[in-house]
Specification:
- The chain has 241 residues and is mainly α.
- It has three domains: 81 residues, no CATH class; 49 residues, no CATH class; 82 residues, Orthogonal Bundle (Chromosomal Replication Initiator Protein Dnaa, Chain: A).
- Helices cover 58% and strands 2% of the residues.
- A two-stranded parallel sheet has the order 1-2.
- Helix 12 crosses helix 14, helix 14 packs antiparallel against helix 15 and helix 15 crosses helix 16.
- The radius of gyration is 22 Å and the shape is elongated.
- About 10% of the residues have low confidence.
């Protein structure tokens, strides 16, 4: 409740709604707040019990979900419960919890396949749906895609960024985090601080991992910008490789 600001996601009804409902209602099991489906039925801070008729809340609309399983209420509840139980084995699913592109594309395999054929996938972390749906929603809202959304949607966190930088400089990813004056290591630190903002971080946050002071991280970010410009390196282009 207190971890972060409230976040809502616009969801394309088919085929994402039911997957999202299942994923959300299994959160208590993944978080080890309850151990079994039977215990989940009695967990009051989850809408699962209301969908199965064990609890009632005027503010929760259950028909929107249950009618997708069967027009008969009892049959729908049986099918819904089985559907949710089948999702336990899937565990945590970044494509439903993380950025829009990974979710929209249906996972990394589809992203890689699309890139192989030169398809540009549209994404926004606030929207759960396919490329066409995302594009339509943003068009209606007169909004544009943000490169930072694309990075976050590709699942590029600080560790993934370190892998990208290491591959670019032809060094081991562990070298990125080591202190030293070797040219490649120094350049790696520059690029990490420079590209940090594109993956939703600040140069200061990355600087702490690199054991740099705030002024040092800022200077490194400036040097990284100059280095990237001089070499013609773009994080967006590197993500397409």
């Amino acid at each position: 409740m207190f971890q972060n600001r409230y976040k809502s996601i616009l969801c394309q009804t088919e085929p994402y709604l039911l997957e999202l409902v299942r994923y959300i209602h299994l959160n208590p099991i993944r978080a080890h707040l309850v151990a079994t489906m039977e215990e989940l039925l009695g967990y009051r801070y989850c809408g699962h019990s209301r969908l199965l008729g064990c609890d009632v809340a005027d503010w929760q609309i259950t028909a929107e979900v249950l009618l997708r399983f069967d027009r008969n209420l009892e049959a729908a509840q049986v099918k819904y419960e089985s559907f949710v139980a089948d999702g336990i084995a899937a565990g945590r699913r970044p494509e439903l919890a993380g950025g829009g592109l990974l979710r929209s594309a249906g996972g990394w395999e589809n992203i890689i396949l699309a890139r192989r054929y030169g398809e540009h996938l549209k994404s926004d972390e606030r929207i759960l749906g396919d490329s066409e749906f995302v594009e339509e929603v943003l068009s209606d809202a007169d909004e544009h895609f943000d490169d930072r959304c694309l990075c976050r949607a590709n699942g590029v966190d600080v560790e993934k960024l370190a892998e990208i930088v290491a591959r670019l400089l032809e060094i081991d990813p562990a070298e990125v985090w080591r202190e030293g004056r070797m040219s490649a290591t120094v350049q790696a630190r520059y690029l990490m601080c420079h590209w940090a903002k594109e993956v939703g971080l600040t140069s200061t946050e990355v600087g702490k991992r690199l054991k740099l002071s705030q002024p040092g991280a800022s200077r490194a970010a400036q040097n990284g910008a100059e280095l990237a410009k001089k070499r013609g390196w773009s994080l967006q282009e590197l993500l397409k490789v």
